[in-house]
């Protein structure tokens, strides 16, 4: 009997397993996950869970019986430590060895740490459910919060902390929040959104040191400024979780290089890097929808239902009352053209143009219109 | 086929409308998914695809 082993039990891993079963895979199916929790959804962690709108267990994918009912051997608390391609074997930290016929790598990413300061109490990172629960508890008792890094996670956490009543400062090396993801023009609008909600936004500034004895007390910036803090979130990006593949011979380079992997090895989600023909570039996307789309594509490829994988990427962020949605890929040099609505009313659709072609559409509180504008990207 | 949408969990991605435009739509004001009607049997595949792709797993089918 064919054995598919999926390493990683988050959105990509669990979706691959469930799609395989739903679409007729009858072989053995094992899902290996590092965390103690049943597979759960991450986007709500920095939104509903931090705000307390959802109890933590509401993020769980389906009931605990769903895996056994579908004949999925779900092994939690089991970190993969090593891959042996020649023997088709994954070694787990528990000492177990799992043999596979086909392997799906869905180990996601790990947050990047600062060189100093993580040992101080009050310094947090946010990736897991446990992280979110601990950070929420800290925010409920915090007066001054400093968020280091103003990407998705930093911006959403700054919004949540502010809504919980904390004094919040958000610092980034880029001039504006989310400038890397959305460009400077939209980044400046995100900065205004935070400023108007009472967050102090510090752009173009590098953190040099976290100060404190035992507990964090302040965050020191390059220009000598000291920001008082009793809670600090470090959200300075993440790296593909591929350390366990070192020495295996599997081609990696900022992620698993899907197009160079052996025929029986696949990757899905944040960890996967592949060539996009549509956008004529290598992509590795840390977006929730990408995890689902790639998981479904991998499951179907395993089932022999080959469809070319060339999606229009989609991501969103929710901050305060703003729902920002993007279809496509935003190149750093893109020009922004407003096409619908009115930025002053914080309700609009914008096009990103690069090299004479439309490369992304962004909507700010206009979900229906944004989805409709997506067809402009597939028409090319 | 019975379709239920968890509208509180819906993130307004609109992927269900892209997958099954005759079954789902989005509310004008906030983009939250709504059901246009009970799917007919020729819409079952598209409806399953919509449930599978939903990034909030907010569409629940019972068949």
UniProtKB/TrEMBL annotation, chain A:
Its cofactor is FAD. The keyword Phosphoprotein does not apply. Residues 314-378 form the Reductase C-terminal domain. Keywords: FAD, Flavoprotein, Oxidoreductase. The keyword Transport does not apply. Residues 3-294 form the FAD/NAD(P)-binding domain. It comes from the Bacteria. This is FAD-dependent oxidoreductase. It comes from Kribbella alba. The lineage of its organism: Bacteria, Bacillati, Actinomycetota, Actinomycetes, Propionibacteriales.
From TrEMBL, chain B:
Keywords: 3Fe-4S, Electron transport, Iron, Iron-sulfur, Metal-binding, Transport. Its cofactor is [3Fe-4S] cluster. It holds the Pfam family Fer4_13. Residues 1-29 form the 4Fe-4S ferredoxin-type domain. The keyword Transmembrane does not apply. Gene3D superfamilies: 3.30.70.20. PROSITE patterns: 4FE4S_FER_2 (PS51379). Ferredoxins are iron-sulfur proteins that transfer electrons in a wide variety of metabolic reactions. This is Ferredoxin. It comes from Kribbella alba.
């Amino acid at each position: 009997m064919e054995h598919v082993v999926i390493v990683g039990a988050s959105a990509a891993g669990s979706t691959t397993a469930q799609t395989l079963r739903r679409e007729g895979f009858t072989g053995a199916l094992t899902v290996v996950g590092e965390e103690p929790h049943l597979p759960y959804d991450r986007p709500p962690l920095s939104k509903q869970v931090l705000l307390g709108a959802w109890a933590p267990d509401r993020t769980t994918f389906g009931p605990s019986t769903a895996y056994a009912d579908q004949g999925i051997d779900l092994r939690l608390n089991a970190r993969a430590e090593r891959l042996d391609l020649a023997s088709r074997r994954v070694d787990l930290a528990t000492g177990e060895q799992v043999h596979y016929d086909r392997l799906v790598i869905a180990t996601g990413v790990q947050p990047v740490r600062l060189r100093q300061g993580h040992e101080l109490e009050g310094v947090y990172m946010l990736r897991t459910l446990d992280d979110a629960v601990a950070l929420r508890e800290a925010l409920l008792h915090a007066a001054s919060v400093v968020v280091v890094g103003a990407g998705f996670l930093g911006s959403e956490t700054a919004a949540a902390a502010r809504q919980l009543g904390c004094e919040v400062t958000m610092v980034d090396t880029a001039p504006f929040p989310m400038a890397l993801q959305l460009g400077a023009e939209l980044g400046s609008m995100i900065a205004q959104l935070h400023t108007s909600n009472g967050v102090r936004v510090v752009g173009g500034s590098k953190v040099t040191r976290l100060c404190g004895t035992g507990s964090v007390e302040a965050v020191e910036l390059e220009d000598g400024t000291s920001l008082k803090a009793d809670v600090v979130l470090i959200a300075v990006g993440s790296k593909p979780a591929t350390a366990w593949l070192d020495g295996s011979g599997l081609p990696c380079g900022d992620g698993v290089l899907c197009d160079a992997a052996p025929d029986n090895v696949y990757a899905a989600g944040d960890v996967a890097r592949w060539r996009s023909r549509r956008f004529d570039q290598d992509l590795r996307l840390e977006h929730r929808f990408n995890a689902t789309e790639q998981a479904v594509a991998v499951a179907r490829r395993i089932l022999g239902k080959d469809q070319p994988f060339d999606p229009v990427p989609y991501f969103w962020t929710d901050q305060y009352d703003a729902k920002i949605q993007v279809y496509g890929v935003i190149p750093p040099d893109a020009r922004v053209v407003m096409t619908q609505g009115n930025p002053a009313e914080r309700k609009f659709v914008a096009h990103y143009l690069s090299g004479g072609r439309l490369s992304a559409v962004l909507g700010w509180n206009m979900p229906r219109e944004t989805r409709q504008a997506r067809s402009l990207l597939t028409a090319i | 086929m019975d379709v239920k949408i968890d509208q509180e969990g819906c993130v307004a991605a609109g992927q269900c409308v892209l997958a099954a435009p005759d079954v789902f739509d989005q509310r004008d004001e906030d983009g939250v998914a709504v059901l246009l009607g009970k799917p007919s049997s020729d819409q079952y595949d598209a409806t399953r695809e919509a449930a599978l792709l939903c990034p909030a797993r907010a569409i629940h089918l019972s068949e």
